[in-house]
Each structure stands twice: as structure tokens, then as C-alpha cells.
């Protein structure tokens, strides 16, 4: 499959918008339905599609996996992206030879100790430095990265903070 995919991409470069940009499948889960990451990736020039169904974060669902695997193969995605880690997405991406990036912001995230997290096509970004260190020492996750939490600054650019708010809620914690 991967060999055939490379041949097709070489002969039909218009499938990819630009060499530095990717075809991304963004997936919501049954627990997390945030959109900021997909919006930011789209603003960067990537082609981002939102998958039409919620994906399980807690189990590897065979029916969801098969359907997702078909979508990944049919649409020639370069990468699939989720908030937090999904064993279902990891397995589907492994079978379709598509990279998977899990942007993890929950801690501790117990799903990261599942076997699927060590799949070669799975890349995991963890914001919690201590969990990152524990995972490095206790798991065989090949593509584990420390990724501080980010935010879309456009959302907060025009926020007005009154002095009374600053007095009530202000702190030196960002």
C-alpha cells in the first residue's frame, strides 16, 4: 500500500496542496470535541477534514477502526490528529500506514500505558512534564514528545481584563 501511495503522490502532486502542507484528518472523540487545534492547522495552510463520527478514547473498537481505516486509505491522508489518545485511531493508522498524532492534555492519561501507544506510526505529545518522564522510563513509546499546552491567541487577543478581575483572580501562574 505505502509503495503504491508514494507512486500516486509522485504522479499526482495536486493531491497535496503544497509540499510543506499536509492532508489532515482531525477526529473528535466521545469525550473531547474541541476545535481549536483543527482551526489552527487549517490557518497554517494544511487541508483539514473533520471526521464525521466520534471516536472512542477508552477502547479499541473494531467497527470504528475498520471504518476509519477505509477513510484513511480512500482519502490519502498524511496524518490523523486527536485531542488525547485513542487506541482505535492508533490501530487504524497503523494498518493504513498513516501517521497519528495524539495531542494529550489530560493527566494522568492512563490510555498511554496501552500497547497501541507504542505503535510505530503513533506520535504522542504530552503536556505534563512528570507524566512525560514516567512514560519515557516505563513504556516503549517510540515517538513521545513533551509538548507544552498551546492556545489560539486570536481567541483571547481582544479579551478585556478589568482591574477588579485582576484583583480577584490575578496570580503569577500562567
Descriptive notes:
By secondary structure, the chain is of the alpha/beta class. It contains seven helices and six strands, in the order H-E-H-E-H-E-H-E-E-H-E-H-H. It has helices at 2-11, 36-43, 62-75, 87-96, 129-138, 153-156, 163-169; strands at 23-27, 47-50, 79-83, 99-104, 122-126, 144-146. A six-stranded parallel beta sheet has the order 2-1-3-4-5-6, sandwiched between helices. Helix 3 packs across helix 4. The longest helix is centred in the middle third of the chain and has 14 residues, at 62-75. The protein is globular, with a radius of gyration of 18 Å. It starts with a helix and ends in a 5-residue tail after the last helix. The model has no long low-confidence stretch (mean pLDDT 87).
Helical content (DSSP H or I, runs of 4+): 25-40%
Strand content: 15-25%
| Largest sheet features | 6 strands, parallel
Compute the average pLDDT. Answer: 87
Give a count of the beta strands, DSSP E runs of length 2 or more: 6
**Helix-strand makeup class:** alpha/beta
Q: Gap between N and C termini, in Å? A: 46 Å
Q: Extract low-pLDDT stretches.
A: none
- The number of helices is 7
Shape: globular
Gyration radius, in Å: 18 Å
Order of helices and strands: HEHEHEHEEHEHH
> What's the arrangement of strands in the largest beta sheet?
2-1-3-4-5-6
Amino acid at each position: 500500500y505505502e509503495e503504491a501511495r508514494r507512486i500516486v503522490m509522485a504522479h499526482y502532486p495536486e493531491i497535496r496542496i503544497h509540499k510543506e502542507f499536509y492532508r489532515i484528518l482531525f477526529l473528535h472523540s466521545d469525550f473531547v470535541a474541541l476545535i481549536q487545534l483543527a482551526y489552527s492547522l487549517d490557518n497554517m495552510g494544511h487541508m483539514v477534514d473533520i471526521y464525521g463520527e466520534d471516536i472512542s478514547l477508552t477502547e479499541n473498537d473494531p467497527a470504528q477502526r475498520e471504518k476509519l481505516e477505509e477513510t484513511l486509505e480512500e482519502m490519502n491522508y498524511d496524518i490523523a490528529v486527536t485531542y488525547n489518545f485513542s487506541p482505535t485511531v492508533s490501530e487504524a493508522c497503523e494498518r493504513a500506514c498513516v501517521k497519528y498524532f495524539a495531542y494529550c492534555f489530560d493527566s494522568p492519561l492512563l490510555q498511554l500505558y496501552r500497547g497501541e501507544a507504542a505503535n510505530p506510526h503513533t506520535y504522542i505529545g504530552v503536556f505534563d512534564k512528570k507524566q512525560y518522564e514516567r512514560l519515557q522510563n516505563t513504556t516503549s513509546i517510540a515517538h513521545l514528545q513533551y509538548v507544552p499546552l498551546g492556545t489560539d491567541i486570536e481567541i483571547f487577543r481582544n479579551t478585556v481584563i478589568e482591574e477588579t478581575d485582576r484583583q480577584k483572580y490575578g496570580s503569577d501562574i500562567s
